[in-house]
Design a protein that fits this description.
DNA recombination; Integrase-like_cat_sf; DNA_brk_join_enz; 4% strand; elongated
């Protein structure tokens, strides 16, 4: 978060991402070119895919679902639970524990 504040402080336009002294209107062209330069298929790698990957990895790493929801700009955790919940290390832990009980 400190890096973001520092980038904004140093900016010419007040925006974190600038080009030639002006704010970017869209990242589409630059993102696509970066994907192609990396040798990847731009149909497979999009900003949405990176957003989905960040959410998946965050949940899998045990990040609090409220934090993930906040990172993605959601007002609650319902969608995070529904779409990413199965990546959580706690997913099905209770059911798994119940099946290991000695009878």
């Amino acid at each position: 978060m400190q890096e973001l504040k520092e980038a904004r402080r140093r900016s010419v336009t007040g925006h974190v991402i600038e080009f030639r002294g002006a704010r970017l209107k869209s990242i589409a062209k630059g993102f696509r070119e970066a994907v192609v330069r990396a040798g990847l298929n731009p149909r497979d790698v999009t900003p949405h895919v990176l957003r989905h990957t960040a959410a998946t990895w965050s949940v899998a790493d045990g990040v609090d679902l409220w934090e993930v929801a906040g990172m993605l700009g959601h007002k609650d955790v319902n969608m995070i639970k529904r779409v990413y919940g199965h990546h959580s290390p706690d997913f099905m832990r209770g059911a798994s524990r119940a099946l290991r009980q000695d009878f």
